[in-house]
Amino acid sequence: MESSDIDEERVAIREELKGLTFEQLQKLKEEMGTKLFNKKVFNSKSPSSKFKEHENKNFKRENKNRPREISSKIPQKKFAQQSAPVIPVQKNIPRDPRFDSLCGTFKEKAFHSAYKFIDDIREKEISILKKKLKKEKNPEEKEKVKYLVQRMENQMREAKQRHEKDQQEKEEHTARIQALKHGEKPLFRKKSEKTMLNLVQKFETLKKTGKINKHIEKKTKALKAKERSQHNYFE
After folding, report:
1. Quick one: average pLDDT of 57-75?
2. Is 157 helix (H, G, I), strand (E, B) or coil?
3. Residues 112, 182: one domain?
């Protein structure tokens, strides 16, 4: 049968189907089957036949200088377009040295010894801030500078106390070694004895600097405030 006869037959079928309702068309489609119905009415082909036609298509180049046409339906081989080998890149994992065991343990004495130069820098900064405090006229800025000076002085005081404590421990350790060398019993002070010695040294320091009265007033004021808060709590 020629293509013209097939087209005429298809046109005739469509003319006959024009008078049918949607329900009648659906029923006819179910009776004939979707594949046969589409072939007779719409001349549509199944996906498998389309794929076969596409697969059999000739992708030969007309000219060797033209790019080759590749079918999108046929899956390409893995790494077909890859020219160079893939080099795996090691993932960079960030690490915090403060909590990483590979970086060693924190040694407070070694740390303060290595960064002792910061105390010298802090002393210079305090002197500069004190000069600025005298020249400053803005009340808000003056309060900020004053607070900063007090904080830095407290840090210096703590660093000095820590240094004195380390020095005292070093002297005690040296004294124990010397006692062992001379065949004597080394002295190991209790915690209560160390606390008492520290209080005595603190008292002597305050006495020399003339700040003992101020220190006593401060302690008395703190004790009164504590007693007052306890009294209010029990009421």
Report:
1. 72
2. helix
3. yes
| Model pLDDT, residue 53 | 52
Q: Identify the domain containing residue 207 by its residue range.
A: 190-234
Q: How many domains does the chain have?
A: 3
Considering only CA atoms, which of 44, 45, 42, 41 is closest in space to residue 16? 41
19 and 6 both lie in a single domain: yes
What confidence tier does 151 reach under pLDDT thresholds 50, 70, 90? very high
**What confidence score (pLDDT) does residue 191 get?**
82
Do residue 210 and residue 175 come from a single domain? no
- Do 124 and 169 sit in the same domain of this protein? yes
Please give the helix or strand (H or E) that residue 68 lies within, else none.
none
